[in-house]
Design brief:
Length: 89
């Protein structure tokens, strides 16, 4: 299970680095919380995401993240946060 979450978190970090444009802060943050029988990983960037061009349909990041946990995406003018949650066994 830990390896699955590591892969999902890595994919979220890669997406934040690759897709965030014109960031207000040149950084990506990672937060891990464990409690109440859940593990929650949050990855945040501080830019806006560029639109995906059809010819660039090469990524499988969303599929990987969703395969290993419940994924939520929150996009605002200040950046994007991807949250991956999974119940601990």
């Amino acid at each position: 299970m830990l390896e699955d979450l590591l892969l999902a978190a890595s994919e979220a970090m890669n997406n934040a680095v690759e897709h965030a444009q014109r960031p207000s802060r040149p950084e990506v943050s990672l937060r891990v919380q464990v409690g109440g029988g859940l593990i929650r990983i949050s990855v945040r960037d501080f830019g806006t995401w560029r639109d995906r061009r059809p010819a660039m349909d090469r990524g499988r990041g969303a599929l990987l993240m969703n395969a290993y946990g419940d994924v939520r995406l929150l996009s605002t003018a200040e950046g994007t946060t991807v949250t991956i949650e999974r119940r601990l066994a």
